[in-house]
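Now for a sample.
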Amino acid sequence: MSQLIYNTFDYEVQPPRLAPDYKSTVLRAPSKPLVVVKQSLSELTGPVFGDFNLGEFDHDLTKNSVKNGEPMGERIVVHGKVMNENGRPIPNTLIEIWQANAAGRYVHKVDQHDAPLDPNFLGTGRCMTDAEGNYRFYTIKPGAYPWGNHPNAWRPNHIHFSLFGANITNRLVTQMYFPGDPLLQYDPIFLGVPPKGRELLISTFDLSITEPNFALGYRFDFVLRGHQATPFENV
């Protein structure tokens, strides 16, 4: 996977480092041209996660922090594949997710949104892709929340994803959105992605993975390079 991370930045797909409507980028965007560091053996090789120890419920956010009952909200299954531009799977990729709960609140001291915390939902999980590059999470559909970027600003429902490659320096971060969300047309983070890349950030409803009487299914694939590469925040 490490070799897939170091490739030409596609400005037709990847979000710009400065998007003025997304106010925090004004403060953190580079003010000078970036210096490209020559790759060395340490960037192209390193320890892999093939023997990484995961807990039994690390991938199941509906169970991994239960204290006194079931987490509140709509249960969902999120699955997909990590692949290169030719559709070849990338195994042994460590994927981490974090998200707000069903009421739109994170378990974090900085989040002061006036919405309830769920004692049975922490909002974080991780898993490894299998030999065919597949992954699966069970979780609760996150709620929208206000975020103060501009008057009456609300973030659409979304899940944060982090992908680690062959070593811990190879990390890609992105967000997954849900189909039909009316807030997408107002969200400067989503709109900061070039039009060509926006649809690549929206999951698709998947009845084939939906579990009867339990959880709706959504598919979200990752493509790590090429013209259909998933938009990432840190490419």
Observations:
- The chain is about 10% helix and 20% strand.
- The longest strand covers residues 75-83.
- The two ends are 14 Å apart (CA to CA).
- Residues 144 and 157 are 5 Å apart (CA to CA).
